[in-house]
Amino acid sequence: MAQEPDDHLIRLDEEIEGDRGASADYVFRRIGESVPLLPSDSRFDLQNPPSRPLAVSDRFGTLFLAHSEGFLVARTRDVIEKAKAIKEKGKGPCVQDSAVVDVRIGRVSILSLSSDSSTLAATIGGEIHFFSVPSLLSKEQEPSFSCSLNGSVKDLKWQKNAGLSYASLSSDGSLYLGRQKEQLRNVMENVADGLYIYLYIMNRSYFNFIEVHRLAP
User: Which Gene Ontology biological process is one annotated for this entry (predicted)?
Assistant: First the structure.
């Protein structure tokens, strides 16, 4: 049986411009001004931008931000202070200036944190690199494990309450399941856009699949 959506999840159904927004229960207020990632022009390729360039760890108070040659690891409080300074002075340093570490691994498409924030997955083409978050905060830049799939990684989702298990979808429609430090298993082909697949883990080894097709409006 499918689980009900988390009642505490805030869903943003539309993008709203401006410095302030509100709902019945929450007020969103912009802090400071935009902070550049790097000192030089590092714009993404607009024809092929990263699909998920940001990951946020509340547990470690840390931001993971993709740039054109890798990703930055920065303390959330430091970036907030930079945003405030830029608003006050009109200019200021970039995120890289005070980043904990700048990991140059190539053009990242997806940054995704495990549910316990202990592991960061970074995808580049068909490669998935896994980094220990505590190691990154100690300035270590080497991934703890890497694997690859056919085609490029279109999406990657960590399974909640299931250790370090995850599912990955390739650009050719193949669905893979894996655990950190284990090779991927191809479990389904021809997964079309618009098909949602819910994965539930049974005693850490078995998965039940429930296919939910999106109905046409």
Answer: RNA export from nucleus
